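Hey, resending since the last one bounced:
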Amino acid sequence: MLSYRHGFHAGNHADVLKHFVLVALLRHLTRKDKPLWVIDTHAGAGSYSLEEGYAARNAEHAAGIGRLWSRTDLPAPLADYVAEVRAFNPDGALRRYPGSPQIALQATRAQDRLRLYERHPTESRVLQAWAAPLGRRVAVIAGDGFAGLKAALPPPSRRGLALIDPSYETASDYYDVIAAVRDALRRFATGTYAVWYPQLARREAERLPGQLLHLADGDWLHVFLTVRAPAPDGFGLHGSGVFVFNPPWNFEVPVRAVMPFLAAALAQDEGATFDVTCRQT
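The structure tokens again:
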């Protein structure tokens, strides 16, 4: 489906978790000099105004990044993520939210490469206009990110991070994620893959973390953040999670340092909780 617009949800609790993990991964992976390829399968528009348009309608960022913006007691790894959002708001007011393409651009180096996929025609045009001045470092492809991931692997440098985060508006997205990860691990077994998923009252969402774990032959990390109890009517997003295949060594350290604070800061009721599990050999 092409009706989904991420602008409605920019900067919400799910974005905070996803982009905190993304920044932490990039910090680890850019410590080596060798170029890193970052592949974003569902890149969106790249950045979002929080003062007008879609994001202003529901103001979901107020219960997400808005709760962290003025805090002075953030754990260091979480402060690192918020600093990337601040870099995108140089006047000090929270007016815009950087999507994953903008965050990846800010957190990578001149030798690194971004490959960004977006099917929505309007979003992809906005993303292409954003990338136009950036030269060869960034490529935007208006098309299916699942197919694009397959075409991009393995990257020439043999170092890669793929962010896989479809809208999950349809049941097919869940099956496509499993198929894409399975194929990616066959093509490029040592790549790092971060799969974001929503916590929703639907069978596919509840089963997905276990299905991802079943695919993991090597190291992995799974973190989720539930901000409220599921609604009685079964509607709405009550949390989200990120499953990372082949995380960098000791990646669990910044994640464990942040999650108790983040769960308390973003809690919407007494149903808020979190968990971090991993395997590193």
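The longest helix spans residues 13-29.

Sorry for the duplicate.
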